[in-house]
Amino acid sequence: MAFMFSVWTFAVPVCLLYLIKKLWYWYNISKSDPNCSAPLPGGSMGWPIIGETFHVLFQGPSFYEKNFAKFGRVFKTHLFLNPTVRVHGPDNIAKILQGENDIVTSTWPSSTRLILGEDTLAMAQAEEHAFMKKRVFAAFSHSALSGYVSMIQKPVRMAIEKWCQSDEVLAANVLRHLSFRVAADVLCGFHYTDEDVTELCQKFDDIMKGIMTIPYDVPFSRFRRALQARDFIKQKIDENVTRKANLDPEEDTQDAMRILIDLANKSDDSSSKEGLYEAIKNQTIEFLTSGMLSLSSAASTMLYHLAKKPSVLAKVREELNDYGLLTDYSPLTLNKINQCRYVMQVIKESLRMVPPIGATFRTALKTFELDGKQIPKGWTVFWSIRETIHLSDSFTDTKNFDPDRFSPQRQEDKVAGRFSMPVFGHGTHSCIGQNFALLTLRILLIELARTCDFETPNVDKIKFSWIPSPKPKCGMPTRFTRKILVDQNENEVSYSSKSSTCPQGEDSRERSEEGVHQRSTTCHAA
């Protein structure tokens, strides 16, 4: 009797859970369009309300890879409170992006919208988005980028010099700080102290942890901490926006924020102007978040791949030497940077290997089909950048870091077509700051190549976290040493620096030893 009671005690809850999960599944399936003959994609809807959100948060890319392997290029799931279809493939992405504002519209999870605000470029729709994009586009024009070169180069050089004076740095962390400073200085015209940058980076980390979560504002939740961090950052930004608003435009830097402030100042309606200033603060958070999220991720993965394959860095130095850019005293210009094709190939290959953004969101405006499967109206369409690139047949030996695949002789990205490598998206909602990001990464690579050597011990053992953007879990301990350069008269100019051993075992353990003076008679990699 006791045995039967134990069986029932176990079986009843299991059966109830199974029934609840099935009812949830059929509830979501009932939302399909009966007028469309195509079936829904394969896949699970997870558990009530939360769906499979926690599967994504804990499994990362492997969740999508397993489902794509099982169900093909389109599968259904339930993420961030919405029935969702995840899709990859250049032809599928082409149909989605070419159907912008017809079959789909840009959207973001509720948590992202609530944290960043609705009145930002990323959240804007249709005509409003076109107007806002046109409004800030001047900040990313060719002439604007030319003026940004020296503004980017200065903090990059200062950061590298500081890294070389340290025994060891966590490269992912210092690159995050550098990315924030570049975005704050160049895009927003804000000049923060090192202490401010450290504090604000910590707050932005809280935002990033909460930006892709279930938006329940409960104590100690990531979403609550993200909202609190946003409010703190807004207070800091308010001081700078007010300062810039009171400056004569001729005295201020012509950055993206200057353009938005000038437009706000043209409004005669005080209430309208107040609303525009609130939008500017939200837009500033978006710019800084993009710098922290995408730029720092791309910089970290670039350094990671260079550490794994020093021959690529040696080839970068050869190209810089060919163009007379290898000495520490050569000023950079946009034209000189654009000459360095191999530098750009390295950046492209790093972005191909690990895209900073794995996918972007759309909402179906009407029911349509992909790969013979129904995409119901109102469902979220989560189109994959990462899997579209990694599962493409257009790139050869896809797991190998090979910048030469983008050489004029091979041009694998051109052969593949423009939707085969959508790192910055495509269409109306493509990243407006992509040329700025590429410029910053190229300047960083050039300065690293010509001013220092670096080593990441145990680089093959480094693991990545993936949400909201890829970054090394351990922070990527790295030793930077100042290079010994040869001046134009072939007189050796030496620099002493410190080095240290890499921590073994737990990430938090640190030990270092006194550096040694390194000497070399060439400018190539040690």
UniProtKB/TrEMBL annotation:
<dbReference type="InterPro" id="IPR017972">
    <property type="entry name" value="Cyt_P450_CS"/>
</dbReference>
<keyword id="KW-0408">Iron</keyword>
<keyword id="KW-0349">Heme</keyword>
<dbReference type="GO" id="GO:0005506">
    <property type="term" value="F:iron ion binding"/>
</dbReference>
<keyword id="KW-0560">Oxidoreductase</keyword>
<comment type="similarity">
    <text>Belongs to the cytochrome P450 family.</text>
</comment>
<dbReference type="InterPro" id="IPR002403">
    <property type="entry name" value="Cyt_P450_E_grp-IV"/>
</dbReference>
<dbReference type="GO" id="GO:0016705">
    <property type="term" value="F:oxidoreductase activity, acting on paired donors, with incorporation or reduction of molecular oxygen"/>
</dbReference>
<dbReference type="InterPro" id="IPR001128">
    <property type="entry name" value="Cyt_P450"/>
</dbReference>
<dbReference type="GO" id="GO:0034653">
    <property type="term" value="P:retinoic acid catabolic process"/>
</dbReference>
<keyword id="KW-0479">Metal-binding</keyword>
<feature type="compositionally biased region" description="Polar residues">
    <location>
        <begin position="491"/>
        <end position="503"/>
    </location>
</feature>
<dbReference type="GO" id="GO:0020037">
    <property type="term" value="F:heme binding"/>
</dbReference>
<dbReference type="Pfam" id="PF00067">
    <property type="entry name" value="p450"/>
</dbReference>
<dbReference type="GO" id="GO:0004497">
    <property type="term" value="F:monooxygenase activity"/>
</dbReference>
<feature type="region of interest" description="Disordered">
    <location>
        <begin position="491"/>
        <end position="526"/>
    </location>
</feature>
<feature type="compositionally biased region" description="Basic and acidic residues">
    <location>
        <begin position="506"/>
        <end position="517"/>
    </location>
</feature>
<keyword id="KW-0503">Monooxygenase</keyword>
<protein>
    <recommendedName>
        <fullName>Cytochrome P450</fullName>
    </recommendedName>
</protein>
<dbReference type="InterPro" id="IPR036396">
    <property type="entry name" value="Cyt_P450_sf"/>
</dbReference>
<feature type="binding site" description="axial binding residue">
    <location>
        <position position="431"/>
    </location>
    <ligand>
        <name>heme</name>
    </ligand>
</feature>
